Amino acid sequence: MYRYDKIDQAIVDARVAEFKDQVARRLNNEITEDQFKPLRLMNGLYLQLHAYMLRVAIPYGTLSGTQMRMLAHIARKYDRDYGHFTTRQNIQYNWIKLEQFSDLLDDLSKVEMHAFQTSGNCIRNISSDQFAGAAADEVADPRPYAELLRQWSTLHPEFSFLPRKFKIAVIASEADRAAIQLHDIGLQLRKNDAGDLGFRVWVGGGMGRTPVLAKVIREFIPVSQFLSYSEAILRVYNRYGRRDNIYKARIKILVNELGIEEFTRQVEDEWALLQPLALDAPQSEYDRIIAQFPDPAFDPAAPDSIDVSNPEFGAWVDQNTHFHKQRGYASVTISLKPPGGIPGDASSAQMDIIADLAERYAHDEIRVTHSQNLVLAHVRKVDLHALWTVLRAAGLATANLDLVTDIIACPGMDYCTLANARSIPIAQKIAAKFENDGAAQRDIGELKIKISGCINGCGHHHAGHIGILGVDKKGEEAYQLLLGGSGAEDASLAKILGPGFDENGIVDAVDRLIGFYKSARTGPDERFLDAYRRLGPAPFKDAVYV
Amino acid sequence: MSDPQIATLAELLAGANSSAVRIEPGDDARALLPHLGQLTLVEVTFPKFRDGRGYSSARILREAGFTGTLRAAGDVLVDQLGFMVRAGFDDFAPDVPLDPAVVERTLARYPFVYQKAADARAPAWALREGA
């Protein structure tokens, strides 16, 4: 993991001091609420329905046991004993008091953490693959490049007042576990024919009111130049992105209005002009950062077989562990979607337990996934049973990764000022139909249900195999049903199937969709999404609107 | 308050023999580049502090070698000053006067910066390289 040097720590300390100064000036009415709002947003502080919500940055979703323990401490001391892991690999606290906020920032800074740029019209926290450094299919660990982006984007003097928020994701394999085609910039690390590392650059993806898949603007930018290339993209966006309408201000709109060829030409021209300025970090800085992401000291004698004579353990191993590049190891997904739970929530006690387990079994590293689960990336297979036993006792061993109950849901109207409808209860009601029958869930297979409580799409409904969108229909909560989305390497946008439903109607509709899929699939290997792509919407529509 | 000696971009491009020009957020700063030789002052306006286009205008002018006065004018707030200095501004005409004490501590806030920009500060990677 990356560790701060004195420069990183000094910048965080200065940022905390700056925000305390800004809060003090706001309380003295030296600055207006309108002037203060972007300042607090750039420090991750939102005003929600009931209280302030704080979003703490977890750079590229990686944190240590010590850091996780601090997140537990913050939940215990400043919140209601739980936190909520988000689709951008951060954590949110829903019940923060402004008067405690500066103490909270001090606590975070003690473990090299902060809440900078988790909101606001700036470059947000960089996201990445939760299996980075462990996946057999990656060309290199993408996280050093995410760290280079983190530093480059922190307090960027030119790009802190962008037309709108800006999200960047970095992956290093053909499999996309970070939804890069739904980001403002998606970077895929790859090797060219000469064996050199570089990025395929995608631009202009996003969800919200106008969902768009990103487009490739460059097949290969050498890693040594990707920061200046990013600078060129951001400059074109900062100068020409729309500022007249908040709903048309994301880079996806600019890319669509200019056309991808013209947008690409402008970026390339800008990048050519930036070349003489030598904006890219030198190789020594790449080397310094890469050296902080070494392979852990793997046990070469770790046995590769697992005793799965306990069927409950075996089901969890099958569902929640991922192939590891090192023989004898696996990557473990800790589901935060237990029966009756709130997707992404973890209690302080659970966070402490996960911190302990990471230190004991997983080389002191935890990852947050964009599906709102947690990962221990490097676990010896021989330790899986002991790990599972502790997780199970803590309510953290639900064997449902990528299954029907592994639902993404935004906070919805239970917390959010923007929402038109509740999301969490819909997720819970759908899950309740399946959560007591693991075999039935496994029989249905991979099925990604994603629920947003409003058109802003924080629950990624556009990328759901089944997407659900809460809307306001004459003062009543109503739910639209969408099918066929994917945020993976086979990215696609879900389409509305037909008229909307009320709360119970949407739950029944999902049930009928699954029933139809099981009867229509070519076999257990054909996923729901594949069946939908093969058959088209008509038979699914017939099954739902009987 | 408009200063009559400062030409608009349109006036400059129409041949005004002025040594000072004002550009608005939507103006292309690169249109000034053929005229930099005659300019001693470029005023970049910020009608709203949230509109960040002026930061790009400033950097573009400095990158092109402009060494005259680069003024940020309008809705210029103390919490934007640090970014503005790094983007190349060296003169400020805020609509509402700034508290000099707050300005001083704001500009002294950060002992290090991460990026190379239009000011003279060395980015973190350059300091580490020498360490």
From TrEMBL, chain A:
CC terms in the record's Gene Ontology section: sulfite reductase complex (NADPH)
EC number, UniProt record: 1.8.1.2
Any one GO MF annotation of this record: metal ion binding
Annotated Nitrite/sulphite reductase 4Fe-4S domain residues: 119-271, 404-544
Biological process, per Gene Ontology: sulfate assimilation
EC category name: oxidoreductase
Pfam families hit by this protein: NIR_SIR, NIR_SIR_ferr
Residues of the Nitrite/Sulfite reductase ferredoxin-like domain: 52-110, 324-393
Alphabetically ordered keywords of this record: 4Fe-4S, Iron, Iron-sulfur, Metal-binding, Oxidoreductase
Cofactor(s) this protein requires: siroheme; [4Fe-4S] cluster
Full protein name: Sulfite reductase (NADPH) hemoprotein beta-component
Organism (species): Polymorphobacter multimanifer
TrEMBL record, chain B:
InterPro entries with a match to the protein in the record: UCP030820
Lineage top rank: taxon: Bacteria
Pfam families: DUF934
The protein's name: Uncharacterized protein (DUF934 family)
Protein source organism: Polymorphobacter multimanifer
